[in-house]
What does this fold into?
Amino acid sequence: MNFDFTDEQNAIREAVGAVAKRFDDHYWSRKEAEEAFPFEFHRAMAEAGWLGITMPEEYGGAGLGVTEAAIMMNEVARHGGGSAAISSIHINLFGPHPIVVFGTDAQKAEWIPRLISGEDQVCFGVTEPDAGLDTTRIKTFARKVDGGYIINGRKLWTSTGQVATKILILARTTPYEDCKKPTDGMTIFYTDLDRSKIEVRRIPKMGRAAVDSNATFIDDYFVPDSHRIGEEGKGFSYLLHSLNPERILVAAEAIGMGQDALQRAARYAQERVVFGRPIGQNQGIQHPLAENWIELEAALNTTMKAAWLYDADRPCGAEANAAKFLGARAAHKACETAVLTHGGLGYSKEYQVERLLREVIVFRIAPVTEQLILSFIAEKVLGQKKSY
It folds into this structure.
């Protein structure tokens, strides 16, 4: 394994950084205050071709791997946009994966180019109020009728639902109690987000106000057979294909936010003079910052190893989960240290670090909790009995 980026990978970082730098702190502060989706940033990334970095070349994508996507999203996160910038484009990289792998040629030709161009935006309807991370217990049900399915159900934390034109829905097509295995009987649909049949209700939350999260209510919604992805009843297994890439990307994104916070803190420590000397001259300031750098670098190395394993078609479940765990923790600690380094000014919105701290904590919770990661490692790596 070569730890050096290739010329192409370095070019990706530079080009993505050039786009991200066009959107300064004032832009992201304004978007948060207005609770307005960053359409300008999303459009700029689409026009530069980055929304299709992992999509097949025959549909207009770059056909690159998770490694390149992780490099891209880490760079996006390093330039002040925080989780608002990340979340505005994140789902393009892993959400449509079932379409790419299991969709028909006609489905891919119709849907993928529109996602790459930014003409369509998709939201993800998987999590439910009563099921949480126990996806096998979802209650949203798709009843077979002539020509398609009638879907009824409730989804929670549907990000970008206020602006999306498409929705990817995981629904049961066989009741839980009628399945041989809990993971059987679920089906994926990719369809229009028709707001006359689907209510999308915004959830006020701690951070990332610029990118909405929602409770979604689906009532008697007809979805044609042509909008079903793959075989009926195989939806859960299709979702599993995107879990490791998602964990890798989330790790890279969180680390990027931590790196941004660390650089802001390091600059402030050089510039802020108290008692006749820069505060960064004091070990009480130096050591926490140095520790942040060490932890972020260790997390980044784990993340890139996981990405390399995935792209080499080798098992990477443990590494992907470890990357998400380490990345989220290191980033959260770096953002907290950045606030403390700024002292009272760290509590003000002017210096941005309070926003980064509010936004970064979600990575410790989603898309999988630290506790489930530890249970996975204990069982799959250390041979312990399943605990849940």
Notes: Strands lie at 122-125, 141-145, 148-156, 166-172, 186-192, 198-202, 214-224, 228-229, 273-274, 277-278. The longest helix spans residues 235-271. Residues 318 and 381 are 7 Å apart (CA to CA).
